[in-house]
Specification:
The complex is a heterodimer of chains A (837) and B (118). Chain A is of the alpha/beta class. Chain A has 5 domains: 186 residues, 3-Layer(bba) Sandwich (FAD/NAD(P)-binding domain), CATH 3.50.50.60; 120 residues, FAD/NAD(P)-binding domain (3-Layer(bba) Sandwich); 57 residues, no CATH class; 77 residues, Sulfite Reductase Hemoprotein,Domain 2 (Sulfite Reductase Hemoprotein, domain 2); 153 residues, Sulfite Reductase Hemoprotein, domain 1 (2-Layer Sandwich), CATH 3.30.413.10. Chain A has a 5-stranded parallel beta sheet, with no helix packed on it. In chain A, helix 2 runs parallel beside helix 10 and helix 23 packs across helix 26. Chain A is globular, with a radius of gyration of 31 Å. Chain B has a single domain, classed as 3-layer Sandwich (Rieske Iron-sulfur Protein). In chain B, 9% of the residues lie in helices and 38% in strands. Chain B is built from 1 helix and 10 strands, in the order ββββββββββα. The chains are: A alpha/beta (837), B mainly beta (118).
Chain lengths: 837, 118
């Protein structure tokens, strides 16, 4: 304990002495509390946060889009490492707190760190409930709670494998849809007769079930799990094989997700002698039975209730922050909460209390054709509950009526039609948001009200949705309020804001990609400055978004004469290597079709030794990556690789990257064609070509598909009778199997079709638009018609491709070894040896 | 702010491509020297305030540069992050005289104070 006393001593003599605030837990509610505290009383506390998870604060309600692949973890981080540094918060990542000593006023982490506190916030959250059925500990049985769970699910989620989700509530359904998006065969089990019965009434529950089932997800209600069956333990470590219901039904399962509810994590508080019932008991001031200790979030129990939705938890956070900042009147009054499901394409909203009772009236609107259901519950002239399915656009207006307890007698006649008709107001799409008071909450995730959005739009001159998101955070998390935010923008900015307008290329122009491209093809100019001049660019020389795009469209329009503008290319394309986080580069030589030789490997080994290259890694595209090369040494590294006959692998290019192959019929007992040879031929034919975005290909020698050709931009599957060509796959942010393009009888025909496809893509694709996105935009059928059915058109596309290849198949490394762009690779001056003063 | 400057000749403006940048290596780290479309020149520490990205490798546009790592946009005139991001890159006095670039490295010595003020 010696160092604790020393710390205390140092803190006493430091001036001015700041009280120490320690927070156990780093979820969304303590994160919000700190934001509010730093706003209200900057620097008032010396803050230390213990996080049991080894990471920064992230938006837990956005885990579903991470699971479905719509977002990455980086996109849901709320506070990055910089935020903690900027606010002088000490964050212990991966430190679970194991003890609170209220007498000594210390907390201790599992790694032995001890911190003194003057004020303590317990925000330990909750843990998912695990059903204690036999087999619940088998490998492959997961809960759905944090990023680790999502990562575990993504690892286990294999297309075609079977997943069973126990629990048809909010989280369970989001998990089910996410796993379906990953290609799994998904069944949802729910104990009650209708889905989400706590948030939805029976009719809305049925509509939801239909929508879930229409996505090819099986729903079994009134399903009680009896046991989870494992594989034979004799045959290796047992893992889940099936799930058995009470009625004897057995469902095969490779993955079981339990999403049946949460339990407040209150053990730490209980051990410290604080009052705990279901959760940690707090008063309206959010203090526990010890006035210096607050409890916050899902672990807290206020007025006999525990909370799991973000809005009331954020309200708690505001009260804690206000109390810490010296406000003695802030009270936590759990108000009605509203629920939305974060599944793209399914719109439902519920708020308040919508149970039937004798003293309540209800108003129902059904429009089966449009899939709309609305139900309002009224008690003594006030709206107390609402359930909407289908069209949820007026949700905020109704929610406001519920929260305020407004008298709706006057509006009752037209109430169900929403604010457009309330009080006979004219039918104007923005009337709903215009009718909202300034303090109406628009974004539940980030607690942003109408007044703040309108004020920011006006005060900061915001004109785009992205700007509003950046400045106010409204609709920046789950995005379900995007429509309302856009209406607010229309309301505030009038005609100048039109959400359906063409998305401009960037802030430098009002024109979209297609318009710019058409105007360039129509002769708007043959250089970037000329195009900017002709199209009235708003900035003198563009920005990092539009210049690379213009450069690309000019290359397309004038492939023979346009002089590429290096300064308008991203650094990787400018110096033909890939920049790394520390400013060094990685070097990937081409390895045709993934085939290499002893000579090449020896040359690579020599280069690694000679330049002390720290990391050598095999890439997913069947080549070798040399990481950590200093920029000045790039030409020398390339020179040695060139000497061994290797050229740039264009691992940085918006162009052909790799052609991945399997060994094919030369070696493989299943091989039907020479897939390796075809892959090498394709790569030698296509290398150097430029495209709107990167292009990766694969050739598999049989339908077992060892080269994974069916998730590539373009793939070939060899079969006995020839070559099946597939395209528009993806295996990055989005995961998509390819679509069939057509069949070719010979290698020559295969190459002609692929070259025609690539040519069509680069003539139509928008800059940075991958093949699968282009195909989705223009339609697979139209592409097929042009490069397959119409042989004349195919031939013309192929000829244009071949013509442009003549000038591009030059190794950019060799050019630079010979001295091109030498200024890129040498410092302007080196003053590092000057004597320090 | 210091009253006097300590200028070092680091090369010619012509050695930097328009809308480009070069680095000057010093004992205290690298300085990125930028040249705009209008032949103005600016110098910032070659470190983005976000995650330390090498600003010299970014795309220069107007009087700003976009960091190659995560697309922060910084003002070449002040070193401040533009748009909704908040941060400050260290800025160095730079003069162009008779086509020569003269750089003053003294902000490196005063760096901690400047960063706090920023």
């Amino acid at each position: 304990m010696r160092h604790v006393e020393l710390d205390a001593f140092h803190d006493r003599i430091a001036k001015p002495p700041r009280p120490r605030l320690v927070i156990i837990g780093n979820g969304m509610s303590p994160g919000r509390a700190l934001e509010k505290l730093f706003d209200a009383a900057p620097g008032a506390y010396k803050v230390t946060v213990f996080n049991a998870e080894p990471r920064v604060n992230y938006d837990r309600i956005m885990l579903s889009p991470v699971l479905s692949g719509e977002k990455s973890f980086e996109q849901i981080v709320i506070h990055g490492d910089g935020w903690y540094i900027d606010n002088e918060v000490t964050l212990y990542k991966g430190h679970r707190v194991v003890e609170i000593d209220r007498e000594k006023r210390t907390v201790k982490s599992e790694h032995g760190v001890i911190e003194l506190y003057d004020r303590l916030i317990i925000a330990t959250g909750s843990s998912p409930i695990v059903l204690p059925v036999p087999g619940h500990k088998l490998a492959g049985v997961l809960t759905y709670r944090d990023l680790d769970d999502v990562n575990a699910m993504l690892l286990a989620a294999k297309p075609g494998k079977k997943a069973v989700v126990i629990g048809g509530g909010l989280l369970g359904l989001e998990a089910a849809v996410g796993l379906k998006e990953q290609g799994m065969d998904v069944t949802v089990l729910h104990l009650m007769p209708t889905l989400m019965e706590r948030q939805l009434d029976t009719p809305a529950g049925h509509l939801l079930r239909q929508a879930i089932e229409s996505r090819d997800i099986r729903v079994i209600t009134k399903a009680n799990t009896r046991e989870i069956v494992g594989t034979d333990p004799e045959k290796g470590p047992p893992r889940v094989k099936a799930l058995r219901l009470d009625d004897g039904t057995e469902l095969p399962a490779d993955l079981v997700i339990m999403a049946v509810g949460i339990r407040p994590s209150a053990d730490l508080a209980r051990a410290a002698g604080l009052e705990v019932k279901r959760g940690i008991v707090v008063g309206v001031d959010m203090r526990t039975s010890d006035p210096d200790i607050f409890a916050l979030g899902e672990c807290a129990e206020a007025s006999g209730q525990c909370f799991g939705l973000v809005a009331p938890l954020y309200e708690m956070a505001s009260v804690v922050a206000a109390r810490l900042a010296g406000d003695e009147v802030a009270l936590f009054n759990p108000s009605a909460t509203a629920t939305k499901l974060k599944v793209t394409g399914i719109n439902l909203f519920s708020a308040g209390d919508f149970a039937e009772a004798p003293d309540r009236e209800e108003i129902v609107l059904r429009d089966a054709a449009r899939g709309i259901y609305r139900r309002l519950v009224i008690k003594q002239g006030k709206l107390i509950g609402a359930v909407f399915y289908g069209d949820v656009s007026d949700g905020a207006w109704f929610f406001d009526l519920i929260k305020k307890g407004s008298d709706i007698t006057e509006l009752r006649e037209t109430l169900i039609f929403g604010p457009n008709y309330a009080g006979g107001a004219p039918l104007d799409p923005t009337a709903a948001v215009a009718a909202l008071p300034d303090d109406a909450e628009i974004c539940g995730c980030n607690g942003v009200c109408k007044g703040k959005i309108v004020e920011s739009i006006t005060a900061k001159g915001l004109t785009s949705l992205d700007q509003v998101r950046a400045h106010t955070k409204a609709s920046a998390s789950c995005g379900s309020c995007t429509g309302v935010v856009e209406q607010l923008m229309t309301l505030t900015l009038g005609e100048t804001y039109s959400p359906n307008a063409v998305v401009p290329m960037c802030g430098c122009t009002d024109l979209g990609h297609d318009d710019v491209r058409r105007l360039i093809a129509g002769g708007a100019g043959a250089t970037i400055p000329a195009v900017m001049q002709a199209l009235n660019w708003k900035t003198s020389c563009g920005c990092a978004k539009c210049r690379p795009a213009l450069n690309y469209y000019l290359v397309c329009a004038y492939p023979d004469t346009y002089e590429d503008d290096g300064q308008s290319r991203f650094i990787n394309e400018r110096v033909h290597a890939n920049i790394q986080k520390d400013g060094t580069f990685s070097v990937v030589p081409r390895m045709w079709g993934g085939v290499t030789t002893a000579n090449e490997l020896r040359a690579i080994a020599d280069v690694v030794d000679k330049f002390a290259i720290p990391t050598v890694k095999v890439t997913g595209g069947q080549r070798i990556d040399l990481l950590g090369v200093k920029k000045e040494e790039l030409p020398a590294v390339w020179a040695d690789l060139n000497k061994a006959g290797m050229v740039s692998g264009a691992a940085y290019a918006k162009g052909l990257r790799t052609v991945k192959t399997c060994v094919g019929k030369d070696w493989c007992r299943f091989g039907t064609q020479d897939s390796t040879g075809l892959g090498v031929r394709m790569e030698k034919f296509l290398w150097g070509s430029w495209t709107p975005a990167k292009v990766k290909m694969g050739v598999s020698g049989c339908p077992r598909n060892c080269a994974e050709a069916t998730c590539k931009d373009v793939g070939v599957i060899c079969v006995d009778g020839g070559y099946d060509i597939v395209f528009a796959g993806a295996a990055g942010l989005d995961i998509l199997g390819t679509q069939a393009l057509g069949h070719a009888d010979s290698e020559d025909e295969t190459i002609e079709i692929i070259a025609a496809l690539v040519q069509l893509y680069r003539e139509q694709g928008r800059y940075l638009e991958r093949i699968y996105k282009w195909a989705k935009r223009v339609g697979v059928e139209t592409i097929r018609a042009q490069v397959l059915a119409d042989v004349g058109r195919r031939r013309a596309l192929y000829d244009r491709f071949v013509a442009s290849q003549v000038s591009v198949q030059r190794d950019p490394w060799a050019d630079r070894v010979a001295g091109k762009d030498a200024h890129e690779f040498a410092p302007l001056a080196d003053l590092s040896l000057q004597a320090a003063e | 702010m210091k009253m006097s400057n300590d200028w070092t000749d680091i090369g010619a403006l012509e050695d930097i491509p328009r809308l480009g940048a070069r680095i000057v290596r010093t004992a205290k780290g690298c300085v990125a020297v930028f040249r705009t479309q209008d032949d103005e020149a600016f110098a910032l520490e070659d470190r983005c305030p976000h995650k330390g990205g090498p600003l010299s490798q970014g795309i220069v546009h107007g009087n700003s540069v976009t960091c190659p790592l995560h697309n922060w946009v910084l003002s070449l005139e002040t070193g401040a992050a533009l748009g909704a991001d908040v941060g400050q890159a260290l800025k160095f006095p730079l003069r162009v005289e008779g086509g020569r670039l003269l750089l003053d490295l003294s902000p490196f010595s005063a760096a901690p104070d400047i960063r706090k003020a920023g």
